[in-house]
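Design request, tokens follow.
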């Protein structure tokens, strides 16, 4: 990220980037906005995206994380989808 660059001396550099954001083809094909870390952007605490009726959860929204977060976000996103479809909250 701009402004956070550092120079470090080293003899050998191995890059193990792992998860570096959502695969671009999927957000692109739906016209979804991405956040600065390459994940699908949603409002704070929400799973809706900039495209009505399209929701994101798990690593694609949060970035590389844990299975427990994927489960939690999947459930919360499902509740939000239900509310979107039904027009009311069931809890
Ligand atoms: C090597 C490794 C080790 C990990 N170890 C741990 C661990 O020990 N403990 C832990 O809690 N977490 C671990 N994690 C993280 C955990 O696996 C993820 O946080 C979790 O799986 C995220 O779940 P998800 O449903 O968001 O995404 P995913 O599990 O990635 O599921 C996304 C699914 O979407 C499918 N998909 C992609 N594109 C399309 C498409 N166009 N159409 C249809 N389907 C599509 C993919 O095939 C995939 O099945 C590890 C991750 C990695 C990579």
């Amino acid at each position: 990220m701009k402004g956070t660059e550092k120079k470090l001396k080293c003899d050998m550099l191995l890059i193990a980037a792992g998860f570096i954001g959502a695969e671009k083809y999927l957000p692109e094909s739906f016209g979804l906005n991405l956040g600065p870390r390459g994940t699908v952007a949603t409002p704070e605490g929400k799973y809706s995206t900039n495209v009505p009726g399209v929701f994101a959860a798990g690593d694609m929204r949060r970035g590389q994380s844990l299975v427990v977060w994927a489960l939690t976000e999947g459930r919360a996103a499902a509740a939000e989808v239900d509310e979107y479809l039904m027009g009311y909250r069931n809890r």
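Comment from the thread starter after seeing the answer: thanks! Residues 26, 58-60, 65-68, 70 surround flavin-adenine dinucleotide (CB under 6 Å).
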